[in-house]
Fold these 3 entries.
Entry 1:
Amino acid sequence: MRDDILEVLISENELQDKVSELGAQLTEEYADRFPLVIGILKGSLPFMGDLMKKIDAHLEYDVMDVSSYGTGFVSSGEVKIEKDLNTSIEGRDVIIVEDIIDSGNTLKYLTDLFKYRKAKSIKIVTLLDKPDGRQVDIYPDAAGFVVPDEFVVGYGLDYIERYRNLPYIGILKPEVYQK
Ligand code: 5GP
Ligand code: MG
Ligand code: MG
């Protein structure tokens, strides 16, 4: 599997250091607020799992599955709920945890939805931000790393469901796509 990687963009150590930094920020901000952390499946799972352990505050978490990508790598612009939350967000301080913001379509849809559902506040925390891919105006409140406009995999991010289990963020060799 690791032979398929052309380049490691963000190492495991860099990821863990950044997660600790973000966790410390969130601890300060949410210490007395009992936030609802919402992880967007499936890509945010490793990040959310690590991040929560670095937030020293009472919190609750839930997951939601939406799709805007098909199985390949071109954003369709269309967002669909595959699995909704089990928790009511009315009056809650919501922290959305995403793996990456590319076109912004997914997060635009989710922030509009959560406003409509009367969240008290909404914070967007993304591990990666790919500003060059943006199609709609949406900005994360916190982003771990800015990445170039290339397709990245690992630490939750997939290519046809593979590579989510890589402990780092990398770029695939072109021949992987041609297989
Ligand atoms: P957006 O709606 O912002 O275009 O994209 C949201 C979703 O598309 C992300 O949560 C992620 O699942 C997928 N995505 C966007 N860019 C990449 C990328 O470079 N690599 C991978 N593996 N998925 C991506
Ligand atoms: Mg995602
Ligand atoms: Mg995907």
Entry 2:
Amino acid sequence: MSRPIAEFVRQPRTLVLAHRGASAAAPENTLPAFSAAIALGVDFVELDYLHSADGAPVVFHDETLDRTTDAVARWGGNDIPFASKTLDELRQLDAGGWFSPQFAGTRLATLEEALTLICRDSRCMIERKSGDAKTCVDLLRRLGVVDRVVLTSFDWQFLAECHALAPELVIGALGDKTLTVEMIECAKAAGAAILGWDDKLVTREHVELVHRHSLRAWVWTVDDVNRAKELVGFGIDGLISNRPDQMLAARGSNADKTLITVATYNEIDNLPALVEEIFRHAPEADLLVIDDNSPDGTGQWCDEQAKKDPRLKALHRSGKLGLGTAIVAGMRYAIEHGYKYALNIDADFSHHPKYLPDLIGGMDPPGGPGADVMIGSRYIPGGGIEGWPLKRYLMSRSVNLYARCLLGLTPKDCSGGYRCYRVTKLAELDFDAMLSHGYSFQEEILWMLKRRGCRFGETPITFVDRVRGSSKINSREAWAAMWVILALGLKRMKAE
Ligand code: G3P
Ligand code: CA
């Protein structure tokens, strides 16, 4: 149900990878550094691993223990080889005190522990320093994380062996020599989809060469913001950095922003007032209008308005393609442009913008816990509906009850469309795999996010039925939604 990793690495925006975790904020290659990187919302957490003397894959970078542990103080001597110690011995070491007293006592992590932490909420770029292919592939398969990692190494023979064992793995070949076409062919033969290269050698021509051969170009290790911006200008696909916070900022200025999306078809009577109200209640947000070539000029109005207000953006589609696909288009835009939250609102004032601060504020409230999805809810105390006939109300309540039972969803309002999503969570979804084309879209997306372990929050809203036009849902569409929810429910039963 998550977005395939092969597709994720091909997205148009530059990915940000935290080199050895957020290694400027916490000791490199430790669980605290990985947690700090995940909290920043990086696309991947990079780590290195080696095999211990007794063959356990352990997260560590150097060949000797001296620099980043207390091994010398503990055991005496110098240049103590990592590979001379067993996992039990390595576990005794302090791998955090060298960095700062705050991290004293931090233990080395096994690759299994690190992947379990990272792959729950993010993705991992694994760099194998030593160890055999089978142990690595077996571990990835056992943990069920093949689709959450990119496996990299300077040792391309190792990569070729992993590729032979698991052709579905996304592989990155690392290099620190001037790139040639022969090298590209060799990397491809080892199954590489990505080339991760030394920053000193990366030029515009390098990136173009990589792209001409249909590979992605990643670069290590970039900590200077101006250099990062230059590389983004070259079209680099991944920045591996000790300062992922700064790279996220260099990639684009949307990392802290909400993108509000509104789908329109002939909404010229509502839209100017709606835009004004949205910016009154959420002045820091950007607004994307997704217009399906409205004959009434809604799209042209947006283009004119966008020239005056850079917060407003317009996405033009060729014709009436439906609300579900418009919402997905908005989500994809938010992912590709690196927004923090994506919030959908109806164009006709049935969702009033006065609730925007509650929806956005619920995502990361001071003192937490926050939500991955905040739902503007009609069915919790304080919420309500104005203007619906009893039949329409009963239909909505029945579909909600049905979805909650069949899909195990916990929110009281699973069918409403006024929601704020955490974009890093949306980026994990495979929208192409969705079954819904209509009314059940809202339930299906909640279900997909629930399966990714997302947290849901609800804030009360009063939904006011649209003043112009008629209610869009008829009973045929409601029945179609029931079928989709039933199909998802059966899938759920099979999986559990
Ligand atoms: O991402 C590749 C890069 O990490 C290689 O260098 O020494 O940091 O493992 P190193
Ligand atoms: Ca590395």
Entry 3:
Amino acid sequence: KKKSADFDVKRAVYWGEGERVPFMFVAKALDAIKIETGRIAMTEIACNLLRTVMETTPDDLLPVVYLLATRIAPAHEGLELGIGDALITKALAETFGTTQEHLNKKYKELAKDLGLVAKAIRSSQRLMRKPEALTVLKVFDTFHLIAKESGNDSKEKKNNHIKTLLVAATGCEPQYLIYLLQAAEIVKQVYSVIPEYDKIVPALVSGGVWNLPKACSFTLGIPVRPMSAKPMKGVPEIMEKFQDMEFTCEYKYDGERAQIHYMENGSVGIYSRNGEQNTGKFPDVIAAVTRLKKPTVTSFVLDCEIVAYDREKQKIQPFEILRKRARKNVVMSDIKVEVRIFAFDILYLNGQLLLQEQLNVRREHLYNSFQEEPGFFQFATAITSNDLEEIQTFLDDAVNSGCEGLIIKTLNKDATYEPSKRSNNWIKLKKDYMDSIGDSLDLVPIAAFNGLGKRTGSGFSEAVLEELSASLRSKVIPKPKSYYRYSDSDKKIIPDVWLEPSEVWEVKAAGLTISAHYRAAIGIVHPVKGISMRFPRFLGVREDKNIEQASSSDMVADMYNAQKNIQKDERDENV
Ligand code: ATP
């Protein structure tokens, strides 16, 4: 067994000052860390590695840190690789020209470790020509490309990216490339079921990434990160997307997301979209689910929407009414705003996690486990149809009964519950998409202008403006954060004050345009220009979202592209 003193980071690989850091350097350091057992020795190697990078090529420090942390971007950008072992195996077989059978055999021989398989197969091959050395930057950039691929042929494109890395990898590089590809995915999956770094980090340190799924599994009382939906503009588009697939349409209720956990001892936990405790806010919900679960049900996790409800008039109330409800320590007898629960999914039942089941199976469990009670607890209204007219009518019915629109979900294929994911398998269709851009954006204010300015049609009332500026005044910072992207090309748009990012505003626009002055989504739809909003209107503060959950650059770009396609379709039709 080697000692850390035997591994001299500085001597492991040489490269010239200012040249990009070779990936081999990181791979060798990881190799040295892997055989260590003591935390101090591991940390020492990692520190030496970072120090060497800082001294020689400081520009590469960031990609090195991200790779070591098995991330490819800050959490709030929501980038994920979206690859599994099946895709990695395919890329391995194709790169090294081996058969699936041979890979499987090696996989069994080598303790089911795909990294070791990659290394063994690569080292058994004679290279005609030494490939050009891989750099950390190349690996990092390719991981980004993998994460950004979407659409029907994304698997094939991801596969090709993995292959370009593998052909250039030698020595222990293939092993660590595979580990990094797998690790990012494992940590992400575990996090989405147990979103608690307090649990994940100690488990990572003591058992390593491969034991993580075992060490950190789902626990009743810890909310799963909820699955969310992608916006689309109209029923025809959705029908086209889901051709040949069975799908179901549900009312999209306009209330508050609630994940309800019922433990075997009869206690109940209710969690918001953000995973915050909402148990004290809804004693009536606790009473209803306890009363309406069937006797065979001993534990469950329900995914629901809680809406304000006028029981006398039997009418669903708008979201604003629900906001009036007190948030903590609510006592039954004090409740003024009544609520109604619409359950649309079940994630756990009687000790069994159901995330991997298809929606039709989960739904069956849901319907069999509860008794409906009109006005108190019901299943989300749903139809399964592929008749365009029928769906249009269903959408109108939804809107007429006080809902925002529909959520359309795959039913028996590609229909598992995908925690924390804005999934392609849940599509939201809102009535108001039809008259402006696809969806509102959730934005974080980072700067402001003093004075009243022009605000006709901006959505701010006098009172709201007063309240917002009072809350933001305490957030003023002397200079912009290093990661703010802005342009000083036009003096008119240089703000008077910069702000600490602190809250999320829902803003709706009449459209999105390419702009030389604004920087949102720069580099995605245009190499040097960003995207700006036409006639933005403030809709409200999203108190249920934290800044990490604001719309990402990719979402802005997707929305811009969707709008472009729609405009193009309209133009084509006019021609
Ligand atoms: P929005 O502002 O449109 O609600 P969002 O980002 O908060 O967007 P999305 O995931 O995009 O949330 O939209 C789904 C949300 O709709 C869920 O978080 C949930 O609160 C709500 N919802 C209402 N009815 C349903 C339903 N039948 N199935 C799933 N979600 C539903």
